[in-house]
């Protein structure tokens, strides 16, 4: 496996944020980028602009909502869209592809809205379905990265105020349990593995000057199996990409792996 930098970014509309995305790609030059919340169909995805920036795209889009993609410097291979589990689900939330020998999955987990609402139940079911997807398609000994907006802050360190967030969607015990069950497949949170005590966030509400006050949560994650974790050299959050005019409310997250 060659050295690889993998990033994930909920762009909150790829067309509205296209100039920002292209500039960020040129400045940071990751090898693979998992995008979430495209808010466009496959046909509407700006492939030409992305290709001009040096990236091939595998896209699983949807009109107005959701949508995921994998961008890579080499063409993504063996692309699979959705969970392919026979469940009727119109949400475009998962796409997988192989890039230079690594299986990469871009994931946009449901938000959950209000606790115990139908959307919350759907979220927990989504996590269970994704775990079954892994169990039926993969083994922990394979080089596998799942990257995206997970809409779960796993630990107290991952929210700006654990007391204020107690019982709130993104931070409930049921959501955190679903997250742990997924990771029990054999996935490691790359950022937390390198920085067990560091408090960094990836999402800040547009309202109430949350970004300026750094009142955020860490809900965007790069997860990896053992073969990648042993090559992990760095991970982080690109907070600079959240600044400026009309940003996404998420910052990109990334992990870097040495050749091996």
CATH superfamily: Endonuclease/exonuclease/phosphatase
pLDDT averaged residue by residue: 97
| Largest sheet: number of strands, sense, barrel closure | 6 strands, mixed
Q: If you compute it from the alpha carbons, what radius of gyration comes out, rounded to the nearest whole angstrom?
A: 17 Å
Order of helices and strands: EHEHEEEEEHEHHEHEEEHEE
Fraction in helix: 10-25%
Low-confidence segments, ≥5 residues, pLDDT <50?
none
Shape: globular
Total helix count? 7
Explain this structure.
GO terms for molecular function: DNA binding; double-stranded DNA 3'-5' DNA exonuclease activity; endonuclease activity; metal ion binding. The record marks 151 as: Transition state stabilizer. This is Exodeoxyribonuclease III. The active site is at 108, 149 (proton donor/acceptor), 250 (proton acceptor). Pfam families: Exo_endo_phos. This protein is α+β, with helices and mostly antiparallel strands and 260 residues long. The chain has one domain (4-257): 4-Layer Sandwich (Deoxyribonuclease I, Chain A). 23% of the residues lie in helices and 26% in strands. The protein is built from seven helices and 14 strands. It has helices at residues 18-28, 47-52, 118-137, 162-165, 173-183, 190-194, 226-229, and strands spanning 4-10, 32-36, 56-60, 68-72, 77-81, 94-99, 102-108, 144-149, 188-189, 203-204, 216-217, 220-224, 232-237, 253-257. The strands form three sheets. The protein has a six-stranded mixed sheet. Strand 7 (102-108), helix 3 and strand 8 (144-149) form a beta-alpha-beta unit. Helix 3 runs parallel beside helix 5 (173-183). It is globular. The termini are close together. The mean pLDDT is 97.
